[in-house]
Specification:
Structural class: alpha/beta
Radius of gyration: 20 Å
Strand order of the largest sheet: 6-5-4-3-2-1-7-8-9
Distance between the termini: 40 Å
Number of helices: 12
Largest sheet: 9 strands, mixed
Number of strands: 9
Order of helices and strands: HEHEHEHEHHEHEHEEEHHHH
Amino acid sequence: MSSNLDRLAERAEAVRAPLSALFELTGRCNLDCGHCYLDIAHPPEELSTADALRVVDQLADAGTMFLTLTGGELFLRPDALQIAAHARRRGLALRLFTNGTRVTRALAAEIARLRPLAVEISIYGTHAAAHDGVTRRRRTLRRTLRGIVHLRRAGVKVALKAPLLSSVTGELDQLAAWADRLGCAIAFDPFVKPRQDGDTAPLALRAGDAQLARAIAHPRSGLLYDGTLPARPPAGDAPCALGRRTVKIAPTGEVYPCPTYPIAIGNLRDQPFATLWRGGELLDRLRAITWNDLHGDCGGCGQAGYCHRCSAVALIEHGDELGPARESCRIADAKELALGVHTRSTRAPRVSLRVVR
């Protein structure tokens, strides 16, 4: 299956089709998760229903195959299902990101009729103190679990997501057991990113080095491949899909070259998507980046095959999209520690965070 997706991604990149798109319908949310990359306290304006439907049309016309609808909290928009249904009519494979707290039995039945690939819901622990401590809202865990049960009873595939926050790393056994009982897949994400405006507050929730290594070593983490760390990719390859086969549409209509990169390439209120995606000064430069262009510790680094380096995070945290992304370095170190190997004995000290505005 992965080889088929790889071939599909290669073909999409060859014709510059945005294979997957993340469409943030709203920046509003009923929760206030401490690690969220959005500024929930100051949500942006939102596209109208008609404009959002046109965005879906433009993405479909551009060759997009996979569309994720998200927020903020997706279901704070009363037209979310209308937009989702339009995406399905246009032949897009659909994922829905929600915190689950607003999912009723009736809403779950409507979602089931859309036949999404999955509804993805984040979970931060198996007891309220942990989960609600992250969401900073009372009784959130109970409402999220109720939403998951409604979806599963309606026959909807649910995928649980558990970022490896410090509060989560000790509960992987319990979370995996919960997922099994609920009939859900579960994925553990080691990356906790700064907010897109450069605010580093979410980073306080990152797991410590030893915590992270133990979590990565867990048999259900899915983060250690087959036990053999991948080799460094060819120097002429792109470090990531930035500006190549993935795109984000913000609630305002701004278009970003990936879900994390903080600088927009334009706005759909001013230009159609096809024109923006064709290229420009910023997009052309990002598309041209290869491993060979990276400097500092990234130059010739033996961890490049498994660090999952993010140019966007390098820019937000350190002000240099071609330099090291130190959290990627730390995650690569944790993978080595989990496997009892070590590929590099020296590295420059971690630089202080530089906020990009």
